[in-house]
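An instance follows:
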Amino acid sequence: MSCVPDALGETYSRSFALSCEQRRSGSDVLVLATLLSEGDPCDEARDIDHVLTFSDEAQTVDAADALQAAGFRLHDTDRSANHLVIVDHAVPEPARLAEVRRHSLEAAEAWSPDYDGWGCEAQRPQWRGLFRRRRQVGGASPPSHSRR
């Protein structure tokens, strides 16, 4: 079966050089495709939240201590909810996402966590760029509509 990508798939392929098979599999691809559909070219670093879930509060607290000691940055969350949110400031790209997932699971391995996915805010650089250009061009303020 050949893979004929739509406009979003073509954009995604150019952005991350993924094969058709890679685009079809994995939740990382789905989240990245959603970001792209929101107008985010996924080329700017931002905080990415990775969620680990544990079986009880004691494991969650112990794993939080171990992850912080290993250098991971955690959101200040309610440990009694049995999950931890690891924050990674990076460009959301498949290799980086897989690396953080692997390292966090290895660091918390003794507590047998479940990896519940990742998420981040969509960035809209084209909108920010438009506003940035408006402010920079000539440095003038918008014309006034008042009469003298």
Q: What stands out?
A: Residues 44-121 form a domain with the Alpha-Beta Plaits fold (CATH 3.30.70.970).
